[in-house]
Specification:
The protein is an alpha/beta fold and 365 residues long. It contains 12 helices and 18 strands. The strands form 5 sheets. Strands 8-7-6-9-12-17-18 form a 7-stranded mixed β-sheet. Helix 6 links the parallel strand 6 and strand 7. The radius of gyration is 20 Å and the shape is globular. Bound molecules: 5-S-methyl-1-O-phosphono-5-thio-D-ribulose. 5-S-methyl-1-O-phosphono-5-thio-D-ribulose binds next to helix 2 and strand 11.
Length: 365
Amino acid sequence: MKIDGTHYRSIWRESDGTVKIIDQRWLPHELRIVALTNRRDFASAIRDMWVRGAPLIGATAAYGVAVQMAHDASDAALAETWEVLHATRPTAINLRWALDEMTRVLKPLPPSERAAAAFRRAAEICDEDVEINRRIGLNGLELIRAISERKGGKRVNVLTHCNAGWLATVDWGTATSPIYHALEAGIDVHVFVDETRPRNQGAQLTAWEMNHHGVSHDLIVDNAGGHLMQHGEIDLCIVGTDRTTAQGDVCNKIGTYLKALAAKDNGVPFYVALPSPTIDWTVRDGVKEIPIEERDGGEVTHVQGRMPSGVVGLVQISPDGTPARNPAFDVTPARLVTGLITERGVAEASPEGLARLFPDRATVA
Ligand code: MRU
């Protein structure tokens, strides 16, 4: 997407071969771009959330394998890189998907051919992600258009959680792609952006995206969504996902489940936008089977922001030594999901619904 007239992706390869990312830890205050030059950089970038969002985590891992292949393309290095990068974050399935895909392509090749093939495949994974998200946007656009028509062209109010925007993918975003497409189609659309404690991806990243792309929006605290739904202020919810199971359970940023419950109670459609690599066909019951990342309690007891001095830093908001729990994701059971917006169309959140759209991939129906 364009920032001040320049088109950015969230990760790209320069003509000199360097892989660069937007270091998202500094947004919205600073647009910092950094080069990732070795496997350690890639592992830190994923683990410490310089990049984040399931599709971007996958794309970054793919380039991490490629950079490692340029240093050492042996079988041992390939296997070790899978392990090192896979250990960075446990929940987003795109990470494992990308690492498996790179291994599938590289393993049969002689080491001398692996680096070039790895960079090629990593670039393709990025381009595929962009195209998938563009299609998700077109499919989701029709849902927004239908609501707009039903309301006689009056403003369509969308609630979203976390950042499932272009910063979380390579471009377009998943949940935001229908919104960007609706804007382009001239539909009056407004976004309520959950701040998304503790890391505030909504306040820091989604709000930054909405601002830059001229999308009408309001930032709200995480607990405001239910109230707004009760008062008819939300027409639909669209969120992203880090892993969706074969039966349509959706794992996403902590707090998503509560939004889905509130949506159900108020008859508000609750959609999840996802690229197909986010489907984990090996898992059915998301609550029981998906590993949920537990992050440092410091993310709960401290909040990052820009001080009046202009310095970006952490502020402590709880008493010294307060213990904190920090589960980073939760699972929304399929029964609370109105539909899954994929690159192939909108699926019912059920084994049959997913298998109908992906008959070539569904293994557990
Ligand atoms: O912890 P994060 O910021 O990586 O979590 C991101 C999310 O939960 C997104 O909603 C999800 O990855 C979908 S991104 C298109």
